[in-house]
Amino acid sequence: MTRRTLLTGVGLSSAIARTAAQNGRALESARHFRIWDEHCHLGQIPGDTPEQRMTALVRWADRLGIERLLLSQGYDTDLHPTPAGFREENDHVMRAVREFPDRAFGSVYLSPAYPEFSVQEFNRCVRDGPMVSIGELETDRRCSVPEMDVIVECAASMQVPILQHAWLKIGGNEPGESSPYDVVAIARRHPQVQFVCVHTGGDWERGIRIIRDTENVSADIAGSNPTSGFVEMAVRELGPERVIYGSDVGGRSFASQLAKVLGAEIPDTAKDLILGGNLRRLLAPVLRAKGYRT
Predict the structure, then answer these.
(1) Does residue 132 share a domain with residue 61?
(2) Are 121 and 41 in the same domain?
(3) What's the order of all strands across the beta sheet hosting 217-220?
(4) Domain containing residue 8
(5) In this predicted model, what pLDDT tens digit does every residue of 201-225 receive, in sequence order?
(6) 269: buried, middle or exposed (CB in 10 Å: 19+, 13-18, 0-12)?
(7) Does residue 21 sit in the same domain as residue 86?
């Protein structure tokens, strides 16, 4: 063995040890908080059934001390589902939630492309079923269209939040894809309803500024790379009460998205709100109405 090989090996071993120590500290830090993940999907998770996929999610969540998961969209990848497709995916979510009632909540998948059906599905899944929020809404129509109003009125009727996908793409959004500007437009029409700008537009520096003056819109940090500064800017511009942790699992990992918060240079009181306190506050009215223990 040469001296260079020996030193390289020692250096690599030291780096591995440092990484393991950092991971251990991050995990220990996570255990100090009650973590609720606002943005979870069953897609890209191993398993032949919703129950099997949910079992995998809970196993992974346990490793990081994540207490609750808010599931939406089932696991289909079709961005233009029919009403039958929406119903099937909502059924997948409800099956997963019923398998783990102490670990998961459901969020109903709707679309302003089908306003009448969306009202029926809201009633089936939320008013008369186990679900506790709306979204992530993503498909076919931007959320600022007039057809969205009837869905927002459903949300108002039971004081549930709306999780709205939003993106800012360099080459322009897909047809019907919402941006933070659309989220602001619908939120200003319905100031009594709480909205979550999912992904904060992807281009989060712009997204944060776009939603800043609309107080009933919160920023979801899910889905982008764990870039330093995202959470710090959101807290500085919006206040910690309007920033919400979500992972976008299985498109992203729990750990990479938790790192945005745990590694942020913000007080632990702010981390506590972002990692679960804010979501618990948004869901409190419907959870009380449904008799959930939190």
Answers:
(1) yes
(2) yes
(3) 35-40, 66-72, 104-108, 133-137, 162-167, 195-201, 217-220, 243-244
(4) 1-30
(5) 999 999 999 999 999 999 999 988 8
(6) exposed
(7) no
